[in-house]
Specification:
alpha+beta; 2 domains; four-stranded antiparallel sheet; 10 helices; globular
Length: 290
């Protein structure tokens, strides 16, 4: 698969919300900002590094978005998933400095390069079912985790920005195969129970932490519904929590949340409240007594 012909949205820095459409090759192969990137890598001032990074071109590797960069505005999926590996999350990985060689073991990896900082890496993988972007990402993340490699879970967001970088020797596999695996979260068995006061106190603590951190645990529709089904165990008391969780997603609409929650209450669809805590956990929320 020639991924370089895929069209994506490219933005002139993070302040650009409209972007333009170009090929993946135009973004990955550009050398217009090499000096800026080298300056960023040599800089020891955190604020200056951040300023340079935010001013560099950015791209949504997974597709074209219009009129603005929001998940709900996806016009065409590129069929690609981009996954990050940060140095701070992989301090014990023995082959970190040769990660591109590690990527070469995976026939589905089309491209691997150093990140803009020069300390991390990112890989691009073609997927079979773009509409199941989130499920493909989770399967890929788990595959790498088996090797001891921790990927940035935020990359599950289909409209995640990728900063322009420079690598004079990226790993390229023009014969990469399409990744077909999908991870489907097993549903916990339904329990007919009255949530305890302790359950609700834990939900309250988790939701407030989600709001403070602006953490989105509903990055795809299936996870959003699962959150609703879990919180519906609290009855009407769960409605506020569902709205609070849903608001962290750029596609949040009050009326849609109301309809979904009302429908779940009416049809009595439920999953164990533990499913909500599990979603919090896999997205990195640390609350005691999960």
């Amino acid at each position: 698969m020639d991924i370089f012909k895929k069209e994506i949205s490219i933005y002139n820095g993070v302040s650009d919300t409209a972007g333009t459409t170009a090929t993946l090759a135009a973004f990955l192969n550009s050398r217009r900002h090499v000096e800026d990137i080298q300056r960023l890598r040599a800089c020891n001032d955190a604020e200056e590094k951040k300023r340079i990074k935010l001013s560099l071109p950015q791209a949504t590797i997974s597709g074209i978005f219009s009129p603005t960069r929001k998940a709900e505005n996806l016009q065409a999926h590129s069929g690609l998933v981009c996954i990050d590996f940060d140095a701070k999350d992989n301090t014990t990985f023995p082959q970190w400095n040769e990660l591109k060689k590690v990527m070469a073991r995976f026939r589905e990896v089309s491209y691997c390069s150093k990140s803009v900082s020069g300390n991390g890496y990112f890989a691009i993988i073609p997927i079979k079912y773009p509409k199941y972007h989130g499920q493909h990402f989770e399967a890929i993340r788990r595959d790498f985790l088996k090797l001891g490699l921790k990927a940035d879970i935020a990359c599950k967001d289909v409209c995640r920005l990728r900063c322009m970088t420079y690598d004079d020797a990226p790993y390229i596999n023009v014969n990469a195969t399409t990744y077909t695996a999908r991870y489907i979260e097993p549903m916990r068995p339904i329990r007919h129970f009255q949530p305890s006061t302790n359950d609700e106190a834990r939900v309250e603590a988790a939701v407030r932490a989600i709001e403070r951190q602006h953490l989105d645990i509903t990055t795809d529709y299936a996870l959003w519904v699962k959150a609703a089904m879990a919180l519906a165990g609290l009855g009407e008391r769960g409605r506020e929590y569902f709205h609070a969780v849903s608001r962290q997603n750029d596609s949040y609409k009050f009326a849609e949340c109301e309809r979904k929650y009302n429908n779940i209450l009416r049809t009595r669809q439920r999953v164990d409240i533990g499913s909500f805590f599990y979603l919090c956990k896999i997205y990195g929320l640390q609350i005691s007594n999960y």
